């Protein structure tokens, strides 16, 4: 039965490598739509979304010690994500599973809308940059990479940007 896979222990929600699709489906089954206020309480701080907009929705995904907020901007036809560690209950491949679930949400949105959306992934450290260049590349097939600096709280912070288009399956 798809919704109750035998290879996931529901008590501890541990990954069994025999079927990672079941882990991703479990993450997706727990997703919630959240408000901008709730997202901010979780650390989300994107200036582009400084107020609630009717065409912008946020989906919260959780797995292990991390959360991932997927922002869907229907008006701007773009996605963004925010990932953060919130507990010390780490599980194997958290980042990868959360981004695979996020990618599924993105694909579902563009299939439903019948038009492509842009996705830009930002990394602010070398570990996430390296993840984006390897595993992230396998998930998102980046079309463009760049790096830059921004000033935050008076300090220069280096960032890495990866961009791609998410196209409907039927186009």
Structure characterization notes:
The two termini are 32 Å apart. The chain has a 7-stranded mixed beta sheet. The protein has 171 residues and is an alpha+beta fold. It is built from 4 helices and 7 strands, in the order αβαβββαβαββ. The longest helix has 20 residues, at 94-113. 22% of the residues are buried.
Q: What is the secondary structure topology, with strand pairs?
A:
Elements: H1 20-29, E1 32-34, H2 36-41, E2 56-63, E3 66-73, E4 78-85, H3 94-113, E5 117-123, H4 126-140, E6 144-152, E7 155-166
Parallel strand pairs: 4-5
Antiparallel strand pairs: 1-2, 2-3, 3-4, 5-7, 6-7
Keywords:
4 helices; 7-stranded mixed β-sheet; alpha+beta; 171 residues
What is shown here, in short?
It is built from 4 helices and 7 strands.
Q: How far from one another are the termini? A: 32 Å
Number of beta-strand segments: 7
Overall pLDDT, averaged? 86
Number of helices: 4
Profile the largest sheet.
Answer: 7 strands, mixed
Order of adjacent strands in the largest pleated sheet: 1-2-3-4-5-7-6
What is the percent of helical residues?
A: 25-40%
- The poorly predicted ranges are 1-12
**C-alpha geometry:** globular
| Radius of gyration from the alpha-carbon trace, in angstroms | 16 Å
| SSE run | HEHEEEHEHEE
Please indicate the percent range of residues in DSSP E strands (runs of 2 or more).
25-35%
Structural class based on helices, strands and sheet pairing: alpha+beta
């Amino acid at each position: 039965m798809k919704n109750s896979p035998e290879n996931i222990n529901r008590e501890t929600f541990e990954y069994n490598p025999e079927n990672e699709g079941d882990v991703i489906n479990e993450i997706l089954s727990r997703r919630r739509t959240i408000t901008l206020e709730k997202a901010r309480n979780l650390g989300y701080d994107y200036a582009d979304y400084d107020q609630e907009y009717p065409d912008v929705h946020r989906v919260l995904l959780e797995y292990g010690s991390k959360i991932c907020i997927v922002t869907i901007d229907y008006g701007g036809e773009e996605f963004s994500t925010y990932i953060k560690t919130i507990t010390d209950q780490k599980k194997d491949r958290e980042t990868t599973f959360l981004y695979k679930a996020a990618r599924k949400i993105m694909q579902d949105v563009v299939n439903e809308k019948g038009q492509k959306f842009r996705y830009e992934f930002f990394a602010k450290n070398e570990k996430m940059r390296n993840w984006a260049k390897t595993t992230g590349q396998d998930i998102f097939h980046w079309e463009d990479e760049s790096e830059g600096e921004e000033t935050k709280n008076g300090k220069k912070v280096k960032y890495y940007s990866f961009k791609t288009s998410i196209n409907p399956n039927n186009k």
